[in-house]
Amino acid sequence: MEKKYKVGIIGATGMVGQRFICLLANHPWFDITVLAASPRSAGKKYTEAVGAKWCMEEEIPESVKNMVVMNATDDVEIIAELVDFVFCAVDMKKDEIKALEERYAKAECPVVSNNSAHRHTPDVPMVLPELNPEHTEIIASQRKRLGTKRGFIAVKPNCSLQGYVPALFPVDKAGYKVKDVLVCTYQAISGAGKTFDTWPEMVDNVIPFISGEEEKSEKEPLKIWGKVDGDVIKDSDRPNFTAQCLRVPVSNGHMGAVFVRFENKPSVEEMKKIWKEYKGAPQKLNLPSAPKQFLNYFEEDNMPQTKLNRNLENGMAISIGRLREDTQYDYKFVCLSHNTLRGAAGGAVLLAELLCAEGYMD
């Protein structure tokens, strides 16, 4: 990439915003130009605005410590003039997020969103870059609707499905049609924007409910499996997903226990071969954040493990294990992804890299 893009982070003081800052501080393509947050943070230096809320393992990067935080909602047009595009990770009501992201897009500022507000807007691509990069084609239709030349919104999927959908989609693409999927996810507390310091009730505890998570886990894969049809993305009518999502006492990393039934069942060897050989657009384009080996299968019975494997390839790779036949479904296996890297900020950065490589940010 010859040029460097000027980027803004909207919602910069939250956990995902902090993760964006760490990922972008030394990014080869992107320079952080703007940090924006709520009115109570606006006008303060970033270190002052984030204060004791900083929860990353690394220190706040020097390049942003003294950056003055802008107002995410009042300074939209000013921010749009200062950047080539923004990452959005705000903590607001869904209808407010939807309206705010459209304001940025209509100000001719592309938005790469971590939020769920626009995931089911029919002309907004929801992209897991290794799986459905062709969905970015819908951006032309979205720009026509919004009346923009540059501005648009693109989103990444929910963090909970980033382990099991990447394991299933390539097998389906290889011709072994996935029919039914049952998944139980065991999700880290960082998915709620928490640490054990801020959520001590989670120590030695499991909560069998995460608001909205099961609906996302069941519905969002159908858009990823869907097709661009005219001016919209039409959801697929298969596979059938059912999900149960639990919050577990883990800092980072979402584990999934998957049961799958196929229309035409592959062998264990065929599935492992597909996983090993699969490469998506990020690998073929050699994007900066792309893992070299996207899907990693572990032969050991006690692998993958959250603590050992969540940071594989800078947290951007998917770990799979325990593939075996099941008595009711065809197969069962476990999978693991880092929820704030692959599942949130890292997945959005990879999507932005794809959009830059395809010319949508120019």
In short:
This protein is of the alpha/beta class and 362 residues long. Helices cover 30% and strands 22% of the residues.
What does this molecule look like?
The chain is an alpha/beta fold. The protein contains 13 helices and 14 strands. The strands form three sheets. Strands 3-2-1-4-5-6 form a six-stranded parallel sheet, with helices on both faces. Strand 13 and strand 14 form a beta hairpin. Helix 1 packs across helix 13. The N and C termini lie close together (12 Å).
Present the secondary structure layout:
Elements: E1 5-10, H1 15-24, E2 30-37, H2 46-50, H3 62-65, E3 70-71, H4 76-82, E4 85-88, H5 94-106, E5 111-113, H6 139-146, E6 153-155, H7 164-173, E7 178-187, H8 213-224, E8 227-229, E9 232-234, E10 240-247, E11 254-262, H9 268-277, H10 281-285, E12 295-298, H11 306-309, H12 312-315, E13 318-325, E14 331-337, H13 341-357
